[in-house]
Specification:
With 403 residues, the chain is mainly α. The protein has 18 helices and no strands. α1 runs antiparallel to α3 and α1 packs across α13. The two termini are 26 Å apart.
Length: 403
Amino acid sequence: MGADLKSEKHLPVLDGLRGLAVLIVVLYHTGGGAQSSNLGLRIYGTILKAGWSGVTLFFLLSGFLITGILWDSKGTVNWWRNFYLRRVLRISPLYYGSLLLVLAVAWLTHKGRPGFAGLWIFALYLQNLPWIADPGLNSRSLELGHFWSLAVEEQFYLVWPLLLTRLRTAAQVKVVCLGLFLLSTAFRYGVWAFSSKPWDYNRFILSRVGELALGAFLAMCFRDDSWRRLERAAPWITAASLASLIALGAANGTVEATKWYGSTTGLTLITLFFAGFMVQAIQGGWIHRAMKAAWLRWVGSISYGMYVFHILFMPFYIWLGSHLAPHAGRVEGLALKDVITWVLATPIAWASFRYFESPILGLRKYFQATPQATDVKTRVISGDPQQIAVGASLLQAEPLALE
């Protein structure tokens, strides 16, 4: 491997990838300019329309990290308990804290029942199911629409550990992962072929399980000789998928998820692109160095909060912008809202991580998944001390949801 990772307790490059993912998502939600008369701004705005793909990178990272941790600690004492309690400590405090905040704001703004409506859907992680309507969608003072990705992850990890206990070898896990990736792709094509509202299924578990499964596939490849083959193929996979994605976008004008070509072929190409990008980032070279930048890793450390707060408080950002510049035009108003989002969401996310999430995360030490040393050595490429060190480091890396 290009980077010397022997002395690292975890992989900093994964923190950088996390930071990149959240930057893409926030830029997507704060971007614009696709309808501008300025050519450069119009091109920039059109590219940003593909920013929904940032969630794909989060899903890949989640599948890679969590599957690796589950597999390397498989068979240890309290395997189930440790995994789920650590998961709860990572996700639930900020998630359910946000739901409580919605309740509090509804009460303070005297919205009462309309503001409370439908919160049970979020409490049970059912908000991504297309047949369950959210009655409080247009009546809340805070925004919860982006929590669909957390529902996808929690539904996946409700089943995935159980499935892993039934699989004995890494080869079996890989076959299942590739099967899920193909199933997810086929499901999306089927939805667009037979459903009258196919875009309603863009956030459904079967539409998105392929991204998590491909991340899990990379985790298993990392633990045997196939990783070397992946390293050689990754640049070609990344380049080919990106070229195909650009061609798809050029032919159709966009690769938005609400269009059939974006939701089907587009999402498949995006997943393959980020998978190849991840392999190269871990391998070494300029991508590895870029993803290890200190500022990007810092963004990765607060990415959960950034994901939550940049949309949760969006109505407040808009309100604040309208009061700071009541006579601003549409373009100026949108630009001010975007600036306010970045300026406020970042310190809020940092404060949340520093003073709320981190103290709770300290409790994870009581539920540590600690595989035997031989487990790591037999599940990673034997004879390569760097690879063994990286395998051990992945056990220390804490998966971050939306990841």
